[in-house]
């Protein structure tokens, strides 16, 4: 069966060093890693190296639903590229490029089969948009 690939992107008005730190440090991840203001990310751990793990908890603020996200890093090139495999086996690649004092982030990931592709793209894009908003405001 062919894999469905989804691409999302954003341009953040900040240098790549700041974007990299805000994207990867747990104290920042918990501030932006959710698609809607009715959600939260109460915890995050990040061992940013090949073979290291990324773990985060996402929960509805009303306690009605939550899940753990876990992935293992396959490749990390500081300030440029992150590749990881989600616990369910799907691959995710994120590239960072500084362009004129701004940073372009492009994430390409394999869709899962339980939810519509547009819903997945919308959710991941909303998280990335939330990251942009948080990073530019701080």
UniProtKB/TrEMBL annotation:
Top-level division of the source organism's lineage: Bacteria
Family named by the database record: Belongs to the AHA1 family.
Record domain Activator of Hsp90 ATPase homologue 1/2-like C-terminal: where: 14-135
SUPFAM superfamilies the record matches: Bet v1-like
Name of the molecule in the record: Activator of Hsp90 ATPase 1 family protein
């Amino acid at each position: 069966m062919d894999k469905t690939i989804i691409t999302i992107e954003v341009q953040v008005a900040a240098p790549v060093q700041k974007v990299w730190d805000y994207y990867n440090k747990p104290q920042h991840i918990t501030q932006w890693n959710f698609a809607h203001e009715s959600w939260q990310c109460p915890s995050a751990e990040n061992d940013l190296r090949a073979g290291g793990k990324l773990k985060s908890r996402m929960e509805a603020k009303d306690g009605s639903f939550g899940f753990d996200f876990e992935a293992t890093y396959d490749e990390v090139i500081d300030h440029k590229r992150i590749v990881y495999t989600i616990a369910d086996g799907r691959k995710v690649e994120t590239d960072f490029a500084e362009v004129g004092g701004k940073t372009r982030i492009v994430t390409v990931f394999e869709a899962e089969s339980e939810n519509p592709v547009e819903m997945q793209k919308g959710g991941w894009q909303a998280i990335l948009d939330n990251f942009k908003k948080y990073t530019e405001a701080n």
